[in-house]
Amino acid sequence: MNVSRRAVLRATAVTSAGLVAGPTAASLLTGSPASAAATLPGVEPFIATYRTNVAADLTVTGNAAVRILSGMQRVWRTGTAWNTGTVLDHAVQRANMRHVVKITRARTPEQAARAFIQDRQHQSYAATAGLGPLAPIYREGALAVTGITSAPDGTPPTKIDDAVPAGAPAGAALGAGSPSSALGQVVTLVNTLRGPFSSGNPSKTAYQYPRPWRMTESGQVVDTGKVDELGYPVYDSPVTVAAQLLRQRSTTPADDGGMPSGHANAFHLAALAYAYAIPERFQELVTAALDLADTRIVSGMHSPLDVIGGRVLATALAAAILGDPANAALKAQAREQARAYLTARVGADLHGYAHGGTTATDPYADRAANARIALPKLTYDLPRTGVRGVPMVVPAGAEVLLETRLPYLTAEQRREVLRTTAIESGHPLLDGPELWGRLNLFAAADGYGAFDRTVEVVMDAAAGGFAAADAWRNDIGGRGGLVKSGTGALTLTGDNDYRGGTHLRAGALIAAAASALGRGDVTVTGGELRVAGALRVRGEFVQRGGTLTVPARAGRGAIVTVDDEADLGGVLTVDDRSAAGRRPIELTVLRARHVRGRFARVVSAAGRRVTVDHGRTAVTVRLH
């Protein structure tokens, strides 16, 4: 039965804190922040209760979505009607509204047009922008289309909805596409994540936090008693809505709460479904979801709190639905279908093709630019008025979000990635029960943020994809170390400071930054340690087997600088394949406080004759 939010609100007694029936969100959060971090006592985790997210129950104990967003009750106390709420955290409220005012006042015509398109276009279609070079291939295979590709110059006379355009291929569908298409399993996965228990509407009704264009900076709702030329009530608000969207607004505010943003929830749900099936674009899809959700603020339709709430809810829903045993076969089939379909069209190097675009054709082609887009939008720099320094407790089941992006890690290791890349505590909405809001999936796509114990990574080149080759780009700290095993290749690019040392047993480990191997000893007993430029070992260097590969970079100091002693063995390979001409090259391969032993064999990758000098403190090589 379809129950309207207004009917539910009217039919249910409202508590003094504004949430219906049973303990209020505020009462559940009166304990220590650490207690709010994990599942509430006596309450099952979100992943086990996500199906309670229905309009018939708006309580924090009965509705899992309302519960995980209950950090909002530190900011806002819901009133007995939509316009009688009370601001509890004035610093957050002021910053929240000031951001919308600033953005909408500076909004350009191009930004307004884009905001209209993202408002009216099916969100599952919009999220395909995160697929970059794969987007047109996906849309063709999925028969995904949209009828919203441009914006009117002014305010349209009526509401506009997306529709299948004339001339679309037979069987074409809005959103993610057609379930009967060549990518039907992926389409079904997207639709499943956006299924009957994924709405933000129950939480909108429960919290009754007004849209920004109905609020003053202080959080008051002031109805002037007037209507504009379109017949909409006029509110005393400094926020201006984009002209193209004026007729797209709701005229029934009791049914039109702001937090969480339904569009933001939908963008993130669709993006995370695509990211599971096509993890080669995981980080770009996360970026796209944050970027698309931000258009809700640019349009004036939502505030940062609304958009953050949508992301928090979608993150939890995606994990719950992907982790639901009922969807185990579907998610595996969607991943395999996407891989097979896309590789058949672009070749075996799917990752390379997926990242082969330029910013002219792929809005998310530049990782550094993506970081500038994504990371500020995790918090919008709202004041950290909560308790700082609260340890992160990863929500139950969250590790499934990284299942295809980091397939070579165990479930527990993926939880550690999420924990060590999480957002710091102190943001009221993010600090709600289970801490779904503190997950930082953009950073998690780049591997660990810290090794708090020794981490063994086992990669399998035969499995292909990320199991064959991956890169961790975070700056990794912590007291633990890294053990690299298996046949795959792992690249470290960060300014790393982990203190437990590095041990290469098998496969390839590529040091793509001078401090890539952190602090502590570096031991090579097998595999290939590949130095991309220069490397500093802040401890001992011990090579008992395997291969050390260095570039032919003469005249720039030692390639490998060892702070302590070096004990050598195994093979040294000089990668001189790109060296110009055949002129002799002399380079200092390694310099240490003291050098013991010698390389068993030294070879030139280009086949040159090599002479080696193993000195007391340095190893030099001459290529003839």
Automatic annotation (TrEMBL):
<dbReference type="Pfam" id="PF01569">
    <property type="entry name" value="PAP2"/>
</dbReference>
<dbReference type="InterPro" id="IPR036938">
    <property type="entry name" value="PAP2/HPO_sf"/>
</dbReference>
<feature type="signal peptide">
    <location>
        <begin position="1"/>
        <end position="36"/>
    </location>
</feature>
<dbReference type="InterPro" id="IPR000326">
    <property type="entry name" value="PAP2/HPO"/>
</dbReference>
<keyword id="KW-0732">Signal</keyword>
<dbReference type="InterPro" id="IPR011050">
    <property type="entry name" value="Pectin_lyase_fold/virulence"/>
</dbReference>
<dbReference type="InterPro" id="IPR006311">
    <property type="entry name" value="TAT_signal"/>
</dbReference>
<feature type="domain" description="Phosphatidic acid phosphatase type 2/haloperoxidase">
    <location>
        <begin position="185"/>
        <end position="322"/>
    </location>
</feature>
<dbReference type="Pfam" id="PF12951">
    <property type="entry name" value="PATR"/>
</dbReference>
<dbReference type="InterPro" id="IPR013425">
    <property type="entry name" value="Autotrns_rpt"/>
</dbReference>
<protein>
    <submittedName>
        <fullName>Autotransporter-associated beta strand protein</fullName>
    </submittedName>
</protein>
